[in-house]
Amino acid sequence: MLKKSFDIKSFLDRLSYVEPKITNLELDTKIFKVYGYEKDKYPYLLLGGNWLSEIGFDIGRFANIDISNGLIIIRLFDDVSFDDSLILKQIIRKQYQKFLSVIPRKKLPVIQIKGKSLLDNGFKPQSHVLVKYEYGVIRLRLIESSKLGV
To answer: What is the domain partition of the chain in residue ranges?
Structure first.
C-alpha cells in the first residue's frame, strides 16, 4: 500500500524509457476502431497482436500513456525492477497516473485503454484511430470518418 507521503513524481523521474528505433517500415501503421456499447459508460480501445511484442510491448511490460485532444502517446518504460513493478501496479490500480501494463489475451499481448479521459479528448465510440508505431512508442491519432470513406 502506498503511503500518502509517497512522491509519485520523484519515483517516475528515476524510471527511464526505452529508446525508440524504427521497425519494419511496411508494418508501422494500422487503423483501429474505438469501442463502446450501451452498457459501457466510457469508450475503450483494444490494441492486440504479435506486432506489440515486435516493438517491445511484451506481456508484463509497463508503459506511460499521455492522452490529449485527439492524440494518445504510449511510451514503454525501460526494464523495471521487481520492486518498482509492485509500485507501478499499485499506481495503476489506484489510477494516480495514466499508466498501463501489457496484459495477455489468448497468449497475445494486449493493451486496453479506457475511461473518461478518452471521451474528454474526442475518442468517441465508432470513431477510428490511425496507429503509428516504432520500437518503444505507439502514437494513436483520431481520423475523420470522411477520410476513410465511411
So the answer is: 28-148
